[in-house]
Design a protein that fits this description.
The structure is a homotetramer of 229-residue chains.
Chain A (H helix, E strand, L loop, with lengths): L1 E4 L3 E9 L2 H12 L9 H10 L10 E9 H7 L6 E4 L18 E3 L7 E3 L3 H27 L4 H4 L8 E9 H11 L6 H17 L1 H10 L12
Antiparallel strand pairs in A: 1-2, 2-3, 3-7, 4-7, 5-6
Helix pairs in contact in A: 1-2, 2-8, 6-7, 7-8
Family (chains A, B, C, D): Belongs to the thymidylate synthase ThyX family.
Pathway (chains A, B, C, D): Pyrimidine metabolism; dTTP biosynthesis
Cofactor (chains A, B, C, D): FAD
C-alpha cells in the first residue's frame, strides 16, 4: 500500500507484524480464561481498548517508508517509541525536491496555535511566489556550495525546512494510536495531518477491529471521526 | 519453531517482521549511495555491525511465546525495550507446574557470582528432595487457600519462584542482541542461558547474516562462540 | 521522607530533580510567549495538563528506595519508563522477611478481577495460619539448602512471592502519573495500592500544583479523589 | 554552568539529580555485600563500568538548556532515551539568529563521511559569502511572508537548517554516555562535537569518578582522550 501525500511525498507500508488477532492472542496469555468478558475475539479487543489495557496492541508492528518535508519529519521524530532510519544529508546530496504548498494559511487572532486557509487569491499568489523564489534561491546556493567543493554536511545548512527527506519508521500499534491522537487532529499542523490520515487508513485496513475500538474508546483527536476513510 | 527448554518450559517463535534484508533496506534509506562500503547486502550488514550502526536492526521484530519459571521471567522483564504480556495469577489459577532442576549448583569461593554443578550424588539427592518437598508443600497450601475461598491474588503469595509462568514477548533484533549479550553468557544464571541459546538458534535461522555479523563484531558473551547451534 | 508500607515494607524519597517550576520552565522554552494562556505559572501547569501536553513533566524526576514483596515488585517492574536497581538473590542471602497480610480477601462472583476483605474471623485465622506456615516451611527449606551448600541462585527458587525485596527506582513525573493512574486505583491489587497512595503523598508534597492539576484533568483512578492525603 | 558554543549557541546545566554516589548507592542495593569487589566507592564505580553494569548510572540525571542550529538539533533528537522540550516555530517567531561557520570544510575523496577544514582563503571567503547571502535572503522572505499575513507555521518552511533553536533536555548519565560515544567522536559532524565536548566537561565536573571510569572502559570515541577538559 502506497499513498501520495502532499505535492511530492508518500507513505508506504513496507511490512506488518500481526493483525487484530495478535492483540487477542497476547491478551489471552495475560488473562487466561479469567477475563470477565465474553471470549469472542472482537469483543475482547473492545474490552481491552475500553479499559485502557493497551499492552496487547504492542504486538502489532508496522514498518513504513515515508517521504515528507523536514519540518514534518521534525514533528514525527518527537515520537520516541519507534525506530527511525532517515536519509542523511551528510552523506548524500539533496535532490531538487521541496514542498510547495497549494494554499496559504493565516494565523487566527483568537488562537495563536490555529492557522486557517485563506481565500484571497492575491495574497495566495504573492505568498507562493515568495516561497517559490526563496526555495529556489536556497537550492541554487546549495548547489553552488557543492560545486566549489564545500562538504555536503556544511552546504546543507542553507537548505530550507521544506526540503523533502525520507525515512523508515517501525512502530507498534499502541505507539501508532498515540501518534494518531496527536497528529490526526485539527491542532496538529495541516501537513502532518495529511500523513496521519493515510496512516489511519492503513491501520483501518489491516486491523479493522482495533481501529474501530480505537475510534470508539481511545481517540482524542477530531478529524477521523465521521470521515469515510 | 518451538523448543522445549528446562523441564517443562518452552520457547516458541510466534511471528517475525522482516529479515536480514529489512536492515539492509533501512540502512540504504539512511546512507543512500553515500556509504563507502561495497553495496553488496551481506557486506553492508557486516559494515553496520562493525561500526555499531545498530538502528537498522530495529526494523527486524520477533514475537515469542515463552513458558519459564518466575525467577527467570523476573530477569527477562528487566529488558525494557520490548513488549510483554504475561499470564496473571490474579485472574487465573496456577497449574501444578514448577521447575525442578535435574542437577545442583554450588557457589564458588573465589567468585560470589559464580555457581557450578556438583557431582556429589548424595548432596544432589538431598537437595532435590528438599526442593521437591518445599514446592509440593507450597502448592498444597495454595490449593488449600483457594479451597477455603481466599482470593487468587492473595493465595499466590505462598507460591515459590520456581512456578512456571507464560508470556508473549515482542522485541526488535537490536534489543534481542543486547539480551543475548547479557543472557547468553556464563555470568547469567544457568536457567536463562538455556532460553538465550534457543533464541540465538532462532535468530541465526531467521537472520543468518545479521547473526554472523553479531557474533563477529558485537557479541560480548562467551557461550555462543564456537558452538554449533 | 520515608513511609512504612504494609507490615515490613517502606517507601523512601531519596532525591528529586526539580519541582513544579521545572515543568513551567520547560514549557516556556517550547511555547515562548506564543502560548495562549495567561503566563501565570500555576495556570500554565493546569493548561498543560488539561491539553495533555505531558512532556514538560518529564523534567521532574524522583528517586525512590522501595522495600516491597516480590509479587508487588513484579507489578511495579512492568512500568518500563524508569530505572530500576533491585537487590539480587543470586548474590545476597534473603533475610527472614516476608509479607504476612493482616486481613484476608475473597474473590467476588460478579467480577473475577475483584477481591474484597472478609469479616469472617474463623476463615481469616485459618487462612493466615496456612500462609504463615507455608512461608515458614519455605524459608526453612531455603536455609537448609544454603546450609548443605546449594548456590544462593538455586536455593531461592523455593522462596515464596511474599518475600521482601528492595530496589531503587528513578522515574519522571509523567511516568509516575501513569503509575498512579494504574496502581492508585481499586482495580489494582490492594498491596500495590498502599505504595501508590504514599507516592501520591510525596508527589503532592513536592509538586503541589502538578498534583492538583493531575487529579483534576488526568487521573483515571478512583482512590485518590476526595481523600485527604 | 553555561558555555558558549559555536557563534551564537550555548549549553547550560539547569539542574542535576545525584552524583557519583547515586550510582554507588543504587549498585549497593543490587549487589548488597555480595559483590566481589572492594567496597570502596570509587573502585565500585570502576567495577560497574568495566563489567558494563550500566543501570546504576541511570540514577544520575541532568537537565540542560541548549541553543543550537536546527541541523544539530536534528541529530540530537535521534537520542530517544531522554526528554525534550523544544521552542516551536508554529507558535513563536524566529529571531534573526543563524549559525554562520567561521571556517569551511570539504569532503575527502577516500571517505565520503569525512569532512576536513580547508586553508584556501579564497574558497573560504566565497563559500561564506554564499552562505551568508542565502541565509539573509531566506530570512527576508520569512519576514515578508509574516508581514503579509502568512501563518508562522507556514512561513517557516523557507527558513534554513542553520536557524538557531532552543530546547530543554533531561537525560540520565547512561544515555549521556551513549551520546558522548557517538557525538564526541571525529565521525560526528564538527558542530555537534563542540556541544559534546562541553557536555563532557560538565559531566567530568559533576561526576568525576564516573567520567574517569567511562573514559577508561566505555568510551568508544576519539576526541575526549588525552584532552585536558
Amino acid at each position: 500500500m502506497e499513498y501520495k501525500v502532499l505535492d511530492k511525498g508518500f507513505l508506504r507500508l513496507v511490512d506488518i507484524l500481526g493483525d487484530d488477532y495478535s492483540a487477542v492472542k497476547a491478551a489471552r496469555v495475560s488473562y487466561g480464561k479469567g477475563i470477565k468478558t465474553p471470549d469472542k475475539d472482537k469483543k475482547l479487543i473492545f474490552y481491552l481498548m475500553e479499559h485502557k489495557h493497551e499492552t496487547p496492541f504492542e504486538h502489532i508492528v508496522f514498518t513504513f517508508h515515508v517521504k515528507t518535508p523536514i519540518f514534518v519529519a521534525r514533528q514525527w521524530f518527537r515520537h520516541r517509541i519507534g525506530s527511525f532510519n532517515e536519509a542523511s544529508l551528510r552523506y548524500t546530496e539533496l535532490k531538487d525536491e521541496f514542498y510547495i504548498p497549494n494554499h496559504i494559511r493565516k494565523n487566527v487572532k483568537e488562537d495563536k496555535q490555529k492557522a486557517v486557509k485563506v481565500e484571497d487569491e492575491d495574497l495566495k499568489n504573492m505568498a507562493l511566489e515568495l516561497i517559490n523564489k526563496a526555495i529556489e534561491d536556497s537550492y541554487r546556493a546549495y548547489k553552488e556550495l557543492l560545486k566549489i567543493g564545500v562538504a555536503r554536511e556544511m552546504a546543507r545548512i542553507v537548505l530550507p525546512m521544506s526540503s523533502y527527506t525520507q525515512f523508515y519508521w517501525t512502530v507498534n500499534a499502541r505507539s501508532l494510536m498515540n501518534f494518531l491522537n496527536l497528529r490526526a487532529d485539527s491542532h496538529a499542523q495541516f501537513e502532518i495531518q495529511q500523513y496521519a490520515i493515510k496512516i489511519a487508513e492503513i491501520f483501518k485496513e489491516k486491523c479493522p477491529w482495533t481501529f474501530e475500538a480505537f475510534l470508539k474508546f481511545n481517540y482524542r483527536g477530531d478529524i477521523l471521526k465521521g470521515v469515510e476513510l
